[in-house]
Design goal:
Elements lengths: L1 E7 L7 H12 L4 E7 L6 H7 L3 E6 L13 E2 L1 H6 L4 E5 L2 E5 L1 H14 L6 E4 L3 H12 L4 E5 L7 E2 H6 L9 E4 L25 E4 L8 H8 L3 E3 L2 H15 L2
Parallel strand pairs: 1-2, 1-3, 4-6, 7-8, 7-10, 8-9, 10-11, 11-12
Antiparallel strand pairs: 3-5, 5-6
Helix pairs in contact: 4-5, 4-8
Length: 245
């Protein structure tokens, strides 16, 4: 048996299990399984690998992409570049961390907007945000960050609400927070959406639901929108390549 899975909290919203189950079926890999390992606290992480000796690799989702690094034996250059890991591969008894979010985001965004001449605004400052930052840096797109606290980014949500004209400067807005993710689909980043227009691109890393409240509100004001489903598929395929390297 070869076991794979997803570590995070929560994980019930994820399409990863379905994606890999279909892949295993298509490839005729009856001895492969993909489990959901819901883990609120990472102190359970070492016991997981002891319990499942057939566990080859896992994906890692919120909120553990940064804190999981301290449990790894080694990091790939992609994980080092980002400062977070969303893929773990057990190779010769060692746990190695990778970041396929970064590569998948860069490819998904570039295929959508092509040569982009403008500035980006990143919502959030966690592990997913770090992957986006690395992708934008590779694409030579300057960016600022928004966080709930002044220490977390360049702007706070309160500052944007107090000075809504600031948001007009950014022609690409990327949501890396879990706001709007199933089942809490009514939540959304608290932005001055009325200052968004048809020149704005809005990318949400969330893919469930297909159209988040963040995207819906942007589209209402003419913004061009994209969700994270293509990014999910790209990073999942890259995960598979890593686990079979």
């Amino acid at each position: 048996m070869k076991r794979f899975g997803l570590i995070g909290f929560p994980v019930g919203h994820s399409y990863s299990q379905g994606f890999f189950q279909k892949k295993f079926s298509k490839l005729g890999l009856e001895d492969h399984v993909y489990d959901l390992f819901e883990m609120e606290y990472l102190n359970e992480f070492p016991a997981l690998w002891m319990r499942f000796q057939d566990l080859v690799g896992t994906n890692v989702t919120v909120p553990h992409k940064e804190n999981v690094l301290k449990y790894l034996d080694r990091q790939d250059t992609s994980s080092i570049k980002v400062g977070a890991a969303n893929v773990i591969y057990r190779k010769k008894g060692k746990l190695i961390g990778y970041n396929t979010d970064y590569m998948a985001f860069r490819k998904s965004l570039n295929s959508w907007i092509g040569d982009f001449n403008g500035e980006a605004l990143i919502l959030g400052s966690g592990g997913s945000s770090k992957a986006v930052q690395a992708g934008l840096t590779d694409l030579n797109i300057p960016f600022n960050m928004v966080s709930r606290k002044a220490t977390g980014g360049d702007y706070t949500y309160d500052q944007l609400k107090a000075h809504p004209e600031i948001i007009e400067r950014f022609k690409l807005i990327i949501n890396t927070t879990p706001l709007g993710m199933f089942p809490n689909v009514e939540s959304f980043p608290d932005l001055p959406y009325k200052n968004i227009n048809g020149e704005t691109y809005m990318f949400d890393l969330i893919y469930n639901p297909e159209e988040t409240e963040f995207l819906r509100r942007g589209k209402k004001h003419g913004a061009r929108i994209k969700n994270g489903f293509e990014m999910l598929e790209l990073q999942a395929e890259q995960s598979w390549e890593i686990w079979n390297s």
